[in-house]
Amino acid sequence: MISGIKLFITLGALFFLIGCSDLGFYWQAASGHLELLNRKQDIQELLESPETSPVLKRKLKLVESVRKYAVLKMGLPENTAYTAYVDLGRPFVTMVVTAAQPLELKPKQWCYWFVGCQEYRGYFDQKDAEAFALKMEEQNLDVSLAGVSAYSTLDWLNKPWLPNYFSDPVLSTFLLKHDAELIATLIHEMAHQIVYVKNDTTFNESFATFVEQEGLLQFLAEKENSILIEGNLEKTYQWYLTAREDRLLFRKLVTKTFDKMKILFAENISDTEKFKKKQQLFNELRDNFMRRKEEFQVLSYNKWFAKNLNNSHLLGVKRYHSQVEKFALLFEEQGKQWTKFFDAVRKLAKQKNSKTML
Questions:
Q1: Spatial distance between the Cα atoms of 260 and 255, rounded to a whole number of angstroms
Q2: Rounded distance, CA 355 to CA 246, Å?
Q3: Domain residues of the chain, as ranges?
Q4: DSSP-assigned states of every residue in 311-324
Q5: pLDDT for residue 342 is more than 50
């Protein structure tokens, strides 16, 4: 259990940062995170324990290998993050609410002390998330609610001089994924420790998404990592490439609708007509998916298309991928050298943060 001193220091720091506004939200965030930290188990101890199942041991060994590779070969931060494990006992760690105006492709932002504004609001308890989503719907916003399998405290609680207790753990939700996705998730979360731009969710997520994609490809290209992969390394590599093709097809369908929706909302017609045409575009998107459904080889988007789609769902897809190609180009310009690339990204982040403070 966390000591009373640690609890006092942690909560005291949080409330110092947030003041008295919206204490209910911050309390659930702080207490939810602390509850998670209290359940951490050291990965080395789990690997040495005869009570740990062979399946869990293999996954944790893969985590160790990916973490070591990311630090030594990619230059991601070396600290105590992801050296402990938490079994959540559920398929998500938080539920995230996002929202947008119904006739505007602009995400709603919520602003927080210290971290700035973000395009989502996370809850550890599903009922809390659902209640907040309902409040947003009552404001006539387009709302989406989704379970999230991972989150990062960036580099703030992963400092080398902080006690290991505070560092981010590996979550059981990571291990539910295909090996390729597990590798990508861990690299993605580690990448968030490199830079963070206030008020620019798309920059932060697109950067981490590029790093996960390139890092995964490099990790799988190294033959010595094959002993940690379930089955054949080549098959895992091919699975990832096939999954990437599926994601590209999905984004292509969504982007086409996004672009059409943007044109529609700029038209000089009544709101009533815009709502009518908006629904037609979503029906068209769903029809296009059904016609091309058989082209998806390893990933399924049935649940996504079964939703009552709205602007927030479209923005969610764009949030993680709209700037990935720009980071890929920057990586090329830096000679595909991670150190130079990260320095260039930090420079961009510093410029963006400076503009934010103006």
A1: 9
A2: 37
A3: 1-38
A4: HHHHHHHHHHHTTH
A5: yes
Residue-wise burial string across 315-352, b where 16 or more C-beta atoms lie within 10 A, e elsewhere = bbbbbbbbbbeebeebbeebeeebeebbebbeebbeee
Segment 332-341, tens digit of pLDDT = 999 999 999 9
Which structure tokens are listed for 226?
Answer: 């094959």
In the numeric block, the tokens 């950067």 are attached to 207
Alpha helices in the chain (DSSP H): 4-18, 23-38, 43-48, 54-72, 126-138, 172-175, 179-191, 201-221, 233-266, 271-292, 302-306, 311-321, 324-333, 338-357
**119-136 burial code (b ≥16 CB/10 A, e <16):** bbbbbbeeebbeebbeeb
Cα within 13 Å of Cα(33), Cβ side: 19
> Whole-prediction pTM value?
0.88
Q: For residue 304, how many other CB atoms are within 10 A of its CB?
A: 15
Of the candidates 77, 71, 59, the residue with the CA atom closest to the CA atom of residue 171: 59
Model confidence band, residue 156 (pLDDT cutoffs 50, 70, 90): confident
What is the DSSP track for 291-341?
HHGGG--S---HHHHHS---HHHHHHHHHHHTTHHHHHHHHHHTTT-HHHH
Q: Which residue carries 């998730």 as its tokens?
A: 185
DSSP letters spanning 224-279: GGGGGSSS-HHHHHHHHHHHHHHHHHHHHHHHHHHHHHHHHHHSSS-HHHHHHHHH
Q: Give the C-alpha separation, 27 to 128, whole Å.
A: 12
Return d(Cα 36, Cα 31) in angstroms, integer: 9
Return d(Cα 216, Cα 194) in angstroms, integer: 17
Bridge partners of 123, per DSSP, are 95
CA distance 85 to 64: 11
Amino acid of residue 145: L
- For 222, half-sphere exposure in the C-beta direction (CA atoms, 13 angstrom radius) is 12
pLDDT for 354 equals: 62
Quote the CA–CA distance of 159 and 161 in Å, as a whole number: 5
- Sequence-distant (≥ 6) Cβ neighbours of residue 301 within 8 angstroms: 250, 289
The answer to whether 196 and 158 are in contact (CB under 8 A) is no
